[in-house]
Automatic annotation (TrEMBL):
Name under which the protein is recorded: arginine--tRNA ligase
Keywords: ATP-binding, Ligase, Nucleotide-binding
EC number of this enzyme: 6.1.1.19
Source species taxonomy: Bacteria, Bacillati, Actinomycetota, Actinomycetes, Kitasatosporales
Residue stretches making up the Arginyl tRNA synthetase N-terminal domain: 4-92
Residues in coiled coil: none
UniProt KW Ribonucleoprotein keyword: no
Gene3D superfamilies membership: Arginyl tRNA synthetase N-terminal domain, Isoleucyl-tRNA Synthetase, Domain 1
Domain of life, source organism: Bacteria
Domain (DALR anticodon binding) ranges: 242-356
PANTHER family noted in UniProt: ARGININE--TRNA LIGASE, CYTOPLASMIC, ARGINYL-TRNA SYNTHETASE
Record keyword Membrane present: no
Source organism: Streptomyces thermoalcalitolerans
Classification via InterPro entries: Arg-tRNA-ligase (IPR001278), Arg-tRNA-synth_N (IPR005148), Arg-tRNA-synth_N_sf (IPR036695), DALR_anticod-bd (IPR008909), tRNAsynth_Ia_anticodon-bd (IPR009080)
Reactions catalysed: tRNA(Arg) + L-arginine + ATP = L-arginyl-tRNA(Arg) + AMP + diphosphate
Amino acid sequence: MTPVELSRTVLRAVRRAVDTGELKVSVPERAVVTRPGPGGCGDYATNIALQLARPAGQPAPRVAQVLKAHLLGLDGIGDVSVTGPGFLNISLRDDDAEAALARLVDGILSAGSEYGHAPRRAGAVVRIRCPRDVRALVVADAVARLLRSQGGRASIGCEEPLPAEWEHVLGLLGVRDVRGDAPDDGDASAGITVRPVPAPADPLPLGRDAARWALLLPAAHDRPRITDDHLVQRESNPLFRVRYAHARTRALSRNAADLGFSAQPGPVEAPRDLVTLLEDHPRVLERAAARRAPDCLARHLVGVADAVLPFLPSVLPRGEEKPSAAHRARLALAEAAGAVLAGGLSLLGIDAPDHL
């Protein structure tokens, strides 16, 4: 059971409780399901009881107990516990947890670098305005990419013409000169202004990838570091770790092909933090687009890289060991992480090389 499937299962339990008259609420469109936090247990947790407590006119722990009884009767649920102020902690059956991971990996590999993207939807074009500032333009470009990944449309307008080298070095294409344009009509969904703290130095000498990373990694209210540290090939450089992790996953695929096997999702002992990050990737993209915050995605990619790198040495057979189903499943998980890293870097306008 994937997080999306579990979210639907939780909503099914809510509907059962409403149908039996135990809860008098409107069934929400979505139940947020995440990995348990400190003090939690099981495979997943949801705050749906806290969300429904006020409209139900009941304490959250009572709502949680009602939902627990209905969840325990549904397929794939092994156990349910109530913790804290009313969190539901859900344990999947062991066989279902393995199948869920295999489906997650298979879904990522099927979507490739577009995992987490939403279907194109109708709606107003989000007009992104920014000053003639190199960091503002790079942030605006990344925000536009994120909005498009979530099915939206976006255009970028600058208050002054751009220097040609900005467009060439940083890949800032399609930026309009909006001087003289009529002001936005007040529709917040159709017009935003991007104005982060400016960079303290010219980032162009770093080149496109390092410059964009240096400008996008800090939050908009933080001043970026424009130093050669972004170019060094060592573990202290987060950009290097992200790109190196991706390159390692591609190298493993090539090495596996030389050994005569390929990736196949299946049961695998996977680092829990890595699985959590892969599951969360669609929500990270959605949140980064909604908040106009590409730094959320950049930090997420660092987390994925740091989680997958210790796992990679276990992927290929060692010595005289023959390739097995476990090796194919490990390779599939590694390739899934690589797809997330490649897709995320692309949305930041940064290259994800196969060799590094």
